Automatic annotation (TrEMBL):
<protein>
    <submittedName>
        <fullName>Histidine phosphatase family protein</fullName>
    </submittedName>
</protein>
<dbReference type="Pfam" id="PF00300">
    <property type="entry name" value="His_Phos_1"/>
</dbReference>
<dbReference type="InterPro" id="IPR050275">
    <property type="entry name" value="PGM_Phosphatase"/>
</dbReference>
<dbReference type="InterPro" id="IPR029033">
    <property type="entry name" value="His_PPase_superfam"/>
</dbReference>
<dbReference type="InterPro" id="IPR013078">
    <property type="entry name" value="His_Pase_superF_clade-1"/>
</dbReference>
Length: 220
């Protein structure tokens, strides 16, 4: 006996922030007015594509994501069956001692190290920072947990409010599953603030085991 489900997961990157051009990982940065507008515009466009049924709303706990997600849950309760949840796996990469510093100051103070990191983030990590390998393990474990929740719950659609590093990791995983992210996904792919991606998962249950085939849709 077999069973089929289609899961749909939307990922929205936070909008631009008020504290300028910095390496923004775990630094708590508020959204700018433009950033809030970018996210509301993305939501309005997304509404035109949503399947029937309520969504699971999940956000990074960092305020540039959770601020918008909390407002969305409050102002649009008809779209969500359960209250906003936050998940640590949706947080941005931790840039360690470089976190929160401007790109200009990093390039001036650590020209060789920043050049190496920008060219090959998989094999170069800021001092005391999170490696891309650690990011990959964190994000893929969280993704697997989310898919299980959607498979066994009543909701089969989710909206994740998150960060560029998380979205790039999942893009790489969809294109090259089971392998560490490609450098080009991090340093050669434009992902604007307020971007929305869609991942559809065709899930087939055969004899109690689910087989899932994800498909990445590039934006909407």
């Amino acid at each position: 006996m077999s069973c089929y489900r289609k899961l749909t997961v939307y990922l929205m990157r936070h909008g631009s922030c008020a504290d300028g051009d910095i390496l923004r990982g775990r630094t708590e940065s508020p959204l700018s007015e433009q950033g809030e507008a970018e996210m509301w515009n993305a939501w309005r466009e997304l509404c035109e594509h949503l399947p029937e049924g309520k969504l699971l709303l999940l956000s990074s706990p960092l305020q540039r994501c959770s601020q918008f997600a909390d407002g969305l849950a409050s102002e649009m309760p008809e779209f969500f069956d359960s209250p906003l949840q936050t998940a640590d796996w949706l947080q941005e990469l931790n840039f360690g001692e470089w976190d929160g510093k401007s790109y200009a100051s990093l390039q001036a103070d650590y020209p060789k190290a920043t050049a190496a990191y920008q060219a090959d983030p998989l094999n170069h990590t800021p001092p005391a920072g999170e490696t891309v390998r650690e990011l990959y393990r964190r994000v893929t474990r969280g993704w697997e947990s989310l898919i299980q929740e959607l498979l066994h719950g009543e909701q089969h659609t989710a909206l994740l409010i998150t960060h560029g590093g998380v979205m790039r990791t999942l893009i790489s995983e969809m294109l090259n599953p089971g392998e560490l992210p490609l450098n080009g996904v991090f340093n050669g792919l434009e992902l604007p603030y307020g971007s929305v991606l869609k991942i559809e998962v065709d899930a087939h249950e055969v004899d109690g085991e689910w087989e899932c085939q994800p498909k990445l849709h590039w934006q909407l």
